[in-house]
């Protein structure tokens, strides 16, 4: 079974993809960047602002599918500058209560819309 997950509480896709796909007991959430879901406008500011918005967009998608951060088993974090890692890690970690998922964090040369952080997750229930 494959089901498309879509919510207006997270940004609409900016390309040919979906916010998330539920496949059986697994939820695959597409990479989220700092786009305000109400306006679909890019929110550029401090890394704190971007990271919080990214995590809240992920939260909205998880909730739409009936999941929470406790169900996340894998994350990937893309940063435009590894120098922001500590701050992003702090904000990212505040959304989890123990039982952290597996993760990798990589620096990339450019992210969509020239933003500073993108995060994707896989959840299992």
As laid out across the biggest beta sheet, the strand order is 1-2-3-8-6-7
Proportion in β-strands:
25-35%
Mean pLDDT: 96
Our count of helices gives 2
Low-confidence stretches: none
- What structural category characterises the helix and strand content? alpha+beta
Explain what the structure shows.
The protein has 125 residues and is an alpha+beta fold. It contains 2 helices and 8 strands; from the N terminus they run βββββαβαββ. A 6-stranded mixed beta sheet has the order 1-2-3-8-6-7, covered by helices on one side. A two-stranded antiparallel ribbon has the order 4-5. Strand 4 and strand 5 (41-42) form a beta hairpin. The longest helix is centred in the middle third of the chain and has 18 residues, at 47-64.
Task: Tell me the layout of helices and strands.
Layout lengths: L1 E4 L14 E4 L2 E7 L2 E2 L4 E2 L4 H18 L7 E8 L5 H9 L8 E6 L9 E8 L1
Short description, anyone?
The protein has about 120 residues and is α+β, with helices and mostly antiparallel strands. It has two helices and eight strands.
Keywords:
single chain, 125 residues, alpha+beta, 2 helices, 22% helix, 33% strand
